[in-house]
Amino acid sequence: MICLDKSDFQALSKVPRLNLINSCMGYKSANLIGTVSKEGIYNLAVFSSVTHLGSDPALIGFILRPTTVPRHTYSNIKESDYFSVNAISESFINKAHQTSANYAPEVNEFEVTEIDMEIKTDCLVPFVKSSPVQLLCKYVNEYLIEENGTIHIIASIEKIYVENELLSDDYWIRLDQGKIVAINGLDGYAKTELIERFPYARVIQKPEI
Amino acid sequence: MICLDKSDFQALSKVPRLNLINSCMGYKSANLIGTVSKEGIYNLAVFSSVTHLGSDPALIGFILRPTTVPRHTYSNIKESDYFSVNAISESFINKAHQTSANYAPEVNEFEVTEIDMEIKTDCLVPFVKSSPVQLLCKYVNEYLIEENGTIHIIASIEKIYVENELLSDDYWIRLDQGKIVAINGLDGYAKTELIERFPYARVIQKPEI
Q: What ipTM did this prediction achieve?
């Protein structure tokens, strides 16, 4: 086993350090966040930090680096409050990854990456048509992470769109059925296959003698 | 496609709501967090919320529900500052999931779940011996998420232990090589297989005419 300590990874140049630190805590969720500006320009950006925060109320969180690429996502969310979270499937990982390029604010990433956009009837937020799980979310709050200047966005889940065959009887969404991928580091996309679902873990009581 | 709105998932009973809201944002990282109390009692608990926060300085975050099961993790981290984050591999998903049972504070989850513990020479923090990627982390700060009372713990990565064959030349850790799993919802464990690593995405310039 190799051991790298703080001084080792601080001594690395930027790209290897990004690779190492982005891949060391395991798989990340793979989503495209869709937004619209007040001028009506659509934006789409890949995010690997969308995380469950709570079920009642239904809340998610994700991390934004305001000084890097997905800053249009941030300004759009602040302007319109609503945004979409769209699961990335195997069939469009190439296009999804391309949204991470540093496009100008006036560029519609749906167009340049040729990802099909869908507007649901009741709101202006753009969704990814071929995504098997799509969330309509609403901005709730944000926390500045003072340690590095990132922003932890808190949002409520307003609607969940899910392909019929992914939703099980107990409302668990089977992600591999939709060929939903997981992200490894900054640039690796992995396919997945369910091994097992476990029952609720209980303390195993030893029989009394 | 099925559409569920806020009123639908608020009307669900607890378990289906937990299933739905925990699985709708995609795969989560699968880690065991190891801690030790000031009395020297070891604790191990499964977490699916460990997320990358930044690479320079190397920071991770994770979400704690102080009123539910992993509360010993929180009190131990507050007492000793240091903890370990250990990637979960296919070979021990059953044991890893069992750590989520509501054991009493005096119970050592390594013992009851028969997960082999390893103490590295320079600190008291317990690690999971068979884990292919192990992090030594140090508590830095916490943010109370006022919307639901959860706590976002911020920690620095002090050391990374990684099996030789997982570490590529550019310091990217190839997670599927270590049979590291991803979590689907509360109780589903998925195996993974790398599809592709993409180069850094650049804006595609159209040729000038």
A: 0.94
